[in-house]
Amino acid sequence: MSGAGGGGFFMVYAPRDHAALDEFMGRHGLRRMHYHLDTGGAKILTTSP
After folding, report:
1. How many CB atoms lie within 10 A of CB 21?
2. pLDDT attached to residue 11
3. Cα–Cα distance measured from residue 30 to residue 21, given in angstroms and rounded to the nearest whole number
4. Smallest Cα–Cα separation from 35: which of 19, 18, 13, 4?
5. Of 29, 31, 47, 49, which has the fewest beta carbons less than 10 angstroms from its beta carbon?
6. What is the pLDDT of residue 23?
7. d(Cα 33, Cα 5) in Å, to the nearest integer?
8. Residues 6 or more apart whose Cβ sits within 8 Å of residue 24
């Protein structure tokens, strides 16, 4: 569990049996969000003049 403020984020790594995990999460009102890991480090997205 991680997060700041009033919300939180629960990350689950499941190398197999995704269908069972999806079913469990659905029964408990949780939604699946796909993610990937990035090894590039911090990046500048915008600059101000």
Report:
1. 14
2. 79
3. 10
4. 13
5. 49
6. 93
7. 20
8. none
Tokens of 16: 């197999």
Amino acid at 34: H
DSSP-assigned states of every residue in 1-49? -B-STT--B-----SS-HHHHHHHHHHTT----------S---------
pLDDT of 20-38, one tens digit each? 988 999 999 988 888 778 8
Tokens for 19, please give them: 């269908």
Q: Which amino acid is at 4?
A: A
Nearest to 25 by CA among 15, 38, 41, 12: 12
The lowest-confidence range among 1-5, 6-10, 15-19, 40-44 is 1-5
